[in-house]
Specification:
Radius of gyration: 16 Å
Strand content: 35-45%
Helix content: 10-25%
Number of helices: 3
Strand order of the largest sheet: 1-8-3-5-6
Oligomer: single chain
Structural class: alpha+beta
Shape: elongated
Distance between the termini: 8 Å
Length: 140
């Protein structure tokens, strides 16, 4: 089985946001997949995807604080500044964290660890809606 669709994510504030449930809800074929892989590709260069803590929102806060401190918008050597002071730092964060994930599917569910969830990293102050291409491959 192959299933591919695009999920439009609502605009979010800068920071990390748990989106696991949105992904699962948008994939009706997931529940029919006994074994497989789900590939997620964020179609943007100033946001990211990562797999991390799904229970304590302090983890999302702390990672955002860490990145803001280490990749500020006022670095004097940034030349790409036409789209605002947060754009180049957003590109750096997206490159470091990545824009793709491949997740195992087992018994109709994402095979995540107990405390794992998929995060959208929004690295712009006003990034707008984001598009996520989801490709599911597996057997029933």
């Amino acid at each position: 089985m192959w299933q591919q669709q695009e999920l439009k994510l609502a605009p979010r504030s800068r920071g990390f946001h748990l989106i696991t449930d949105e992904i699962v809800d948008a994939l009706p074929g997931l529940s029919h997949c006994a074994v497989g892989l789900l590939h997620l590709q964020l179609l943007h260069t100033s946001a990211s995807l990562t797999l991390n803590e799904n229970a304590d929102p302090d983890v999302r806060h702390d990672l955002d604080a860490f990145l803001r401190e280490r990749i500020p918008g006022d670095l004097p050597y940034f030349r790409h500044t036409l789209e605002g002071p947060d754009d180049m730092p957003a590109h750096v964060c997206a490159s470091l964290l990545g824009t793709q994930l491949s997740l195992a599917v087992r018994k109709g569910r994402l095979a995540l660890g107990t405390w794992q969830g998929v995060w959208l990293g929004e690295h712009r102050e006003h990034g707008g809606s984001r598009r996520l291409l989801m490709t599911l491959n597996g057997d029933g």
